[in-house]
């Protein structure tokens, strides 16, 4: 079966609906972070996976930087260590700041930028939309790891379908 794609024709969702979708995922991820006890956030892992704090730092390195890159065509190297973030409160504040930055940059992203071939962060080749989908998918994937950690700790994770 051959699949073809086109950038013309009917539009499934518009740019603002896509942002709303992304921000909905971010709200669930924030509630996942809130559910973690401080100590386990930075120390608990299963099977050699990174802690949820480390996963959050990776997401923070990429999320608003992606919106900035799409808006300005400037892609800086990633800082996934984020060594300055050592408490749950700092992670939450950084998450909120990053969400604000996403919303700020979003208005400057053109529809053409989503179709353009780019090299994000010097390592990801693709279209603007494929890079953005990677960032959203990566967040969902890491949030799923967080859900597993919470369940292993006897904590019920937030409902993923409640993206209010």
From TrEMBL:
Superkingdom, natural source: Bacteria
Keyword DNA-binding: no
Record Pfam families: DinB (PF05163)
Binding positions (a divalent metal cation): 142
GO molecular function, one term: metal ion binding
Keywords, ordered alphabetically: Metal-binding
Organism name: Algoriphagus aquimarinus
Family: Belongs to the DinB family.
Record flagged with keyword Metal-binding: yes
Protein name per its UniProtKB record: Uncharacterized damage-inducible protein DinB (Forms a four-helix bundle)
Higher taxonomy: Bacteria, Pseudomonadati, Bacteroidota, Cytophagia, Cytophagales
Gene3D superfamilies xrefs: dinb family like domain
UniProt cross-references to InterPro entries, sorted A to Z: DinB, DinB/YfiT-like
């Amino acid at each position: 079966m051959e699949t073809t794609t086109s950038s013309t024709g009917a539009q499934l969702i518009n740019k603002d609906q896509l942002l709303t979708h992304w921000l909905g995922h971010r709200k669930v991820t924030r509630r996942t972070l809130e559910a973690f006890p401080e100590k386990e956030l930075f120390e608990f892992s299963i099977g050699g996976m990174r802690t949820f704090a480390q996963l959050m730092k990776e997401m923070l390195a990429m999320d608003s930087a992606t919106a900035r890159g799409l808006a300005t065509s400037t892609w800086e190297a990633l800082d996934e260590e984020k060594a300055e973030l050592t408490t749950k409160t700092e992670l939450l504040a950084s998450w909120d700041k990053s969400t604000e930055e996403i919303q700020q940059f979003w208005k400057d992203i053109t529809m053409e930028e989503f179709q353009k071939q780019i090299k994000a962060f010097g390592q990801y080749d693709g279209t603007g939309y494929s890079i953005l989908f990677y960032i959203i998918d990566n967040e969902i994937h890491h949030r799923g790891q967080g859900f597993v950690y919470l369940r292993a700790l006897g904590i019920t994770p937030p409902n993923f379908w409640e993206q209010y």
